[in-house]
Design goal:
Blueprint: E1 2-7, H1 15-29, E2 36-38, H2 51-54, H3 61-73, E3 76-84, E4 90-98, E5 102-108, H4 118-121, E6 131-133, E7 136-142, H5 149-157, E8 162-166, H6 174-188, E9 191-195, E10 198-200, E11 205-207, E12 211-213, E13 219-222, E14 228-233, H7 236-245
Helix pairs in contact: 1-3
Length: about 260
C-alpha cells in the first residue's frame, strides 16, 4: 500500500482556493483506493494566527472537503485545520478521514510554536492518538512537535509503526526538518512521512521538502521545492522484521518513557 504527501503553495486564508488546488494535485496523482494521503498543517488557510477569522464553524468547511475527498477517491486523508477551544483560543488540529465519510480520529498539536507566537493564540493538546491503516498503526503529529522526541517514543511504546507529520516548516530551517524526520524514523524503527508546504506567505518562505523516510532513516521519496505529490510503498512486514532482527526498542528503559 502507498502513502502520499501533497505539497502545495497555500493561498493565504483562502479556503476555497486551497481546497480546489489540493484536489487537483491529489486527483492527478491517482492514489489507489485505500491509500493514505497527507496534506500540510493548516492547509486550507496557511499558518495564520487569525483564529477568529479562520477557525472552523459548524458544519466545518474543511472537514466537509476532507470527508468528500476521502469518499470520492476511496482513500484515507490526513489534513490540518483550526477549531475553536472553549477558552477562546484555537486548536491546531490534524483530522483523519476514511472512505464512507468516517472521521477516524483528530489530534491537537501538543507544542504550539512559542517563538512564532502560536502559544498566544492556540492551546496545547494533551492526548496522543493513532489509527489503523493498511494493517499499520499510524500516529499523527504537527510541525513543531517534531522537535520533541519523547512524544514520538511514547507513541511507539503504544504501538505506532508510522508517523504522519504535517507541517508549515520554513525554508530557513529545512535542514532541521529533514534531519529530525530521519532521526524519528531511525530511533523508533518506524516509517515517517512529512508533508510540508512550499511557496510563501506574508511572513515566511517555505522550501517544501516533503519527504517519506523508511525505518532505516533512508529518504524514499522527496518533493523538493515545488507543488507536487510524492508517494512511496510501505512494507509493514519489513518494518516488523527489522524491529525483530535489531530489537533496540526492547532495550528502552520504561522509567524514562511513559
Amino acid at each position: 500500500m502507498k502513502i502520499f504527501c501533497c505539497q502545495l503553495d497555500i493561498r493565504w486564508e483562502d479556503k476555497p482556493a486551497n481546497y480546489a488546488r489540493a484536489r487537483i494535485l491529489i486527483e492527478a496523482a491517482r492514489p489507489a483506493p485505500g491509500s493514505l494521503v497527507l496534506l500540510p498543517e493548516m492547509f486550507a488557510t496557511g499558518f495564520s494566527m487569525n483564529v477568529a477569522q479562520i477557525h472552523e464553524r459548524s458544519p466545518s468547511e474543511t472537514e466537509v472537503f476532507l470527508s468528500a475527498l476521502a469518499n470520492d477517491l476511496e482513500i484515507f486523508v490526513v489534513g490540518g485545520l483550526v477549531t475553536l477551544d472553549k477558552s477562546g483560543r484555537g486548536r491546531n488540529e490534524a483530522v483523519v478521514f476514511a472512505p464512507g465519510n468516517e472521521l477516524v480520529t483528530r489530534y491537537c498539536k501538543h507544542h504550539p510554536f512559542t517563538l512564532g507566537g502560536e502559544s498566544q493564540h492556540y492551546v496545547a493538546g494533551d492526548e496522543l492518538v493513532s489509527f489503523k491503516w493498511a494493517g499499520c498503526t499510524v500516529a499523527p503529529f504537527i510541525c513543531y512537535d517534531l522537535r520533541f522526541p519523547e512524544i514520538f517514543r511514547t507513541a511507539t511504546r503504544r504501538g505506532a509503526e508510522m508517523f504522519a507529520v504535517i507541517a508549515d516548516w520554513p525554508a530557513k530551517r529545512d535542514q532541521h526538518w529533514i534531519t529530525l524526520l530521519k532521526a524519528r524514523a531511525i530511533e523508533n524503527q518506524a516509517y515517517v512521512a512529512g508533508a510540508n508546504r512550499c511557496g510563501t506567505d506574508p511572513f515566511h518562505v517555505y522550501s517544501g521538502r516533503s519527504i517519506i523516510v523508511d525505518p532505516h532513516g533512508e529518504i524514499i521519496a522527496d518533493a523538493r521545492d515545488e507543488e507536487t505529490v510524492i508517494s512511496a510503498e510501505i512494507d509493514v512486514e519489513g518494518l516488523r522484521a527489522w524491529r525483530k532482527n535489531f530489537p533496540a526498542l526492547a532495550d528502552m528503559r520504561p522509567e524514562y518513557v511513559r
